[in-house]
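Record minuted for completeness.

…
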Amino acid sequence: PEYRVLPVTTLNPSIRETLHIAPALALSPGVLAPFLSDAMLMDEMETKALGRVISGPEGNVLLGRFSRFLAQNLPPSNSGLYTVFRRGDTLVHPVSGEYLATTARVVGVAQLDMPGAVATLTMVSSTEEAIPGDHLVAHEISLRTSYLYPTPARVSPDTYVVSTFGSTSSAGGHSLVAISVGSDDGIRPGDLLATRYPEQTILLTSKTVSPAHAGDSCRITDVKEAVHVRMLRCDERVPSRRELIGKAGELIRLPEGHSGELLVIRVFDRVSYALVRSAKRAVRVGDRVVSPGA
């Protein structure tokens, strides 16, 4: 037999570097659907036929989940489902005071049980109780059929949070907020933005706590200084330094800072609805909205 000597290659261990490209983040329509169903404006409802909640069958006026109620002037609905909503906040620009839009406050979804001039429905889901006078519109199962690819905004807005859609003026992670820019300003669904809380002023005051009478073991026996901290509201007058003379008071100015990140999910002409992706602190009405990294 014939034998051949093959070349021998000696391999040594080494570190090899490869470029890692993170896959593009994509949000499916199913992920966005719960948030898009609440993203409505009264302005877009002006041209639609709206039903009206009358009351419960026994005259009850607070209608929560699984409550039956009566309604009239119902528009057609292919699915038999209706979005129940009422007039929400009036959105104005916090600096110019210019009117932007009026939100529609969604309170739940109702299922048609018995059609007619006075129809009977059942609340199948709700975030709060419906009341007489609330409106009904045909429920749209999905407002978006394509994936959303978050990218930093192409424009550099300098705008504000104008609503947090709740009983409080702040929002945390995965909450919906409204901002005072829209398609007229070049904003698109999928734009990533950042929020910054405004400068704030802290008033520090100190007070000397006098010692108690001798022999009283239930109270402080040494002289101590108590410091009180109070955050001044934005609409509160800041005391002048002259007013603080002799009052053991001090004003400390806190700089503007990063509060959270937003993802725009629905855009109207002059306002947009955005999802709070993350929050280092509560995102509040009046927070400034800028490009990421600004």
Summary: The CA atoms of residues 43 and 109 lie 20 Å apart. The chain has a mean pLDDT of 83.
